[in-house]
Amino acid sequence: MTDNLQDLIPLKLATAIANPLFPAVDSQLRAGRHIGQEYLDNYSFLADFQHELDSFYRRYNVELIRAPEGFFYLRPKATTLIARSVLSELEMLVGKVLCYLYLSPERLAQQGIFSAQEVYDELLNLADESKLLKAINPRSSGSDLDKQKLAEKVRAAIGRLRRLGMLHTVGEQNSGKFTISESVFRFGAEVRSGEEPLEAQLRLIRDGEAATPQSLQLAKEGAVKNDEETEDEEIQEQEEAGEEE
After folding, report:
1. Cα 162 from chain centroid?
2. How far apart (Å, rounded) are the C-alpha atoms in residues 148 and 207?
3. How far is C-alpha 95 from the geometric centre of its chain's CA atoms?
């Protein structure tokens, strides 16, 4: 029985799945969470079994990625069997602001601690406020109420990124203070490569590291088209083989 099991599942993969850490780590990865070195036990587990777990997740059409900064995450393909969620444009923009703050001199001066208000202020420094307000409400007049809604959206985006493991709360849960994880470099491709921000964002979408509803739909249509072409080729080969007989 054991020999038959080893034929189906490599021993090291079976060891990884049997590890008591696996259920929690697997659930976190499937939920889109990023696991960095600050999560010592989970990080060490992924580092020890990276190759085996990557093979395991590829059966679901996702890849276990270890970023240059060291953190782990799952990158889904267009045909993924694991449910995926898409970040909004504002959430991705907030992610980029967090990446810049991570690299800023203020991070050292403030012992790495930031607040939601600082993220909001930096966002307004980097982006056109009127365009941001229009993105939230096309009929925005720039009123105080519109600005309040934008601030609420930014706080919600920060909460979403916290759940993905990109931020860590400091003090009480509602303190509004947090530290920034290296996993924000998911939004910092241009920092790594020196590309223009727009080109870098397009590359992120092409690589599957960031997505919009439109890019997901195009990728899905492309995957379906490839499957249909493969099926047509197989039918044609069978017909040609029949004619030769």
Report:
1. 12
2. 35
3. 11
- Round to whole Å and give the CA distance between 143 and 122: 20
| 89-212 CATH choice from 1.10.630.10, 3.40.50.300, 1.10.10.2260, 2.30.29.30 | 1.10.10.2260
Q: What is the CATH number of domain 7-85?
A: 1.10.10.2250
Residue 52 near residue 10, CB atoms below 8 Å: yes
For the chain, the domains span 7-85, 89-212
Q: How many residues does the chain have?
A: 245
Confidence bin at 230 (pLDDT 50/70/90)? very low
pLDDT at 205: 54
Rounded distance, CA 11 to CA 68, Å? 28
**d(Cα 238, Cα 133) in Å, to the nearest integer?**
59
The amino acid occupying position 66 is R
Closest CA to 127 of 156, 152, 92, 162: 92
Whether the per-residue pLDDT at 122 is higher than 60: the answer is yes
**Average pLDDT value for residue range 95-115:** 87
User: Which letter does DSSP use for residue 203 in this model?
Assistant: H
Please give the Cα distance from 158 to 26 (Å, whole number).
Answer: 23
Instruction: State the Cα–Cα distance between residues 12 and 88, nearest whole angstrom.
Output: 38
In 3D, which of 119, 87, 89, 117 has the Cα closest to residue 101?
Answer: 119
pLDDT tens track for 165-205:
999 999 887 778 999 999 998 887 665 655 565 566 556 55
State how far the Cα of 214 lies from the Cα of 208, in Å rounded to an integer.
Answer: 13
Q: Residue 63: is its pLDDT beyond 90? A: yes
Confirm whether 7-85 and 89-212 share one CATH topology.
yes
